[in-house]
Amino acid sequence: MLKKFLLFIFSIICIIIVIGFGFLTFSPQFGGTHSEADIHRYEKSGHYKEGEFFNLVDTNLDMSLSNLWATLKEFAEGVQNGRPTKDIPPIKITAEDIIKKDTLTKVTWFGHSAFLLEIDNKNILVDPMFGQVAAPHPWLGEARYSKHLPLEIEEMPDIDVVIISHDHYDHLDYESIEKLKDKVSAFFVPLGVGAHFRAWDVPESKIHEMNWWDTQSFKDLQFVFTPSRHFSGRGLSDRNKTLWGSWIVKGRHENIYFSGDGGYADHFKEIGQKYGPFDLAFMECGQYNDKWAAIHMMPEESAQGAVDLNAKVMMPVHWGAFTLALHSWTDPVVRVTKAAKSLGMPITTPQIGETFVVNDSVSYPAHRWWEAY
């Protein structure tokens, strides 16, 4: 009897291993691989050695066994107010709202780091992670705080540009790209991320890979890819095989900055000196912890980063949609609002789906809407 039981357990383990291996090997979620020609390109970037991209400043990503065990235990236990008490319904927009031509620069936040930027009559989606779970499989993560988006992908009009900051699942979502790719004229991505898009059958002509400090013009807009202090990877063995970073979108009148993910460092001052001032800076603010502060800013650092950039207004992103760290879901916005006030940095906190205009003469949304959840 014991022999049969052990055989059964062994069989179950073997099945799990086979399924896991098959998923890791064949699932399109993990993206593409890099050819020798690709690697040769990366080696010329100045930010790649020994098979990996690296940060401008030394950044240790390794966690001690004691810290790792403590972190896993904390995740298992959860945190107080880790999620909203109820679903957060977004403000709804329509395709007609976006198609309508005017001279205004407008922003609509989709939660987390995803937003729509309408500038000079162009539609730009930034880090359009529109899936319900920020993971390669629904079993591997918690669901989004809202069941719906301000506008579902199927209802979206044509998009001029999609910008990607890096290839982590909460910023680059395979299913979202699959649904978007035929609507999009161009994808601007970090060096190496193009391999994922090629694997997902996005035409080569639409893929624009960029190195830090590269500049490209597209439909009268200027795109600059700038550094951040972070890392990359989608699988078990591809850490730092693609680059990560922040973005600048410069139109006829407005200059917009998006931080991507990353820890606080001197790159904010350098970017501000080279390309500032910025009319609006989207600053990562959420999913942080003392144990990984080198790769995710604390809220107070997010506010200071906006000051360093010489931003006129900052908007905290990377919160409001997923629980990916060990803080309450409102901690980011509460702390960054307080920090911004102490630094004299104007801040805007729109609701998910709320469209606002980027302009010196407007009043930016500053609701405390999260208190209702």
UniProtKB/TrEMBL annotation:
<dbReference type="GO" id="GO:0070290">
    <property type="term" value="F:N-acylphosphatidylethanolamine-specific phospholipase D activity"/>
</dbReference>
<feature type="transmembrane region" description="Helical">
    <location>
        <begin position="5"/>
        <end position="26"/>
    </location>
</feature>
<dbReference type="GO" id="GO:0008270">
    <property type="term" value="F:zinc ion binding"/>
</dbReference>
<keyword id="KW-1133">Transmembrane helix</keyword>
<dbReference type="InterPro" id="IPR036866">
    <property type="entry name" value="RibonucZ/Hydroxyglut_hydro"/>
</dbReference>
<dbReference type="InterPro" id="IPR001279">
    <property type="entry name" value="Metallo-B-lactamas"/>
</dbReference>
<dbReference type="InterPro" id="IPR024884">
    <property type="entry name" value="NAPE-PLD"/>
</dbReference>
<protein>
    <submittedName>
        <fullName>MBL fold metallo-hydrolase</fullName>
    </submittedName>
</protein>
<dbReference type="GO" id="GO:0005737">
    <property type="term" value="C:cytoplasm"/>
</dbReference>
<dbReference type="Pfam" id="PF12706">
    <property type="entry name" value="Lactamase_B_2"/>
</dbReference>
<feature type="domain" description="Metallo-beta-lactamase">
    <location>
        <begin position="123"/>
        <end position="319"/>
    </location>
</feature>
<keyword id="KW-0378">Hydrolase</keyword>
<keyword id="KW-0472">Membrane</keyword>
<keyword id="KW-0812">Transmembrane</keyword>
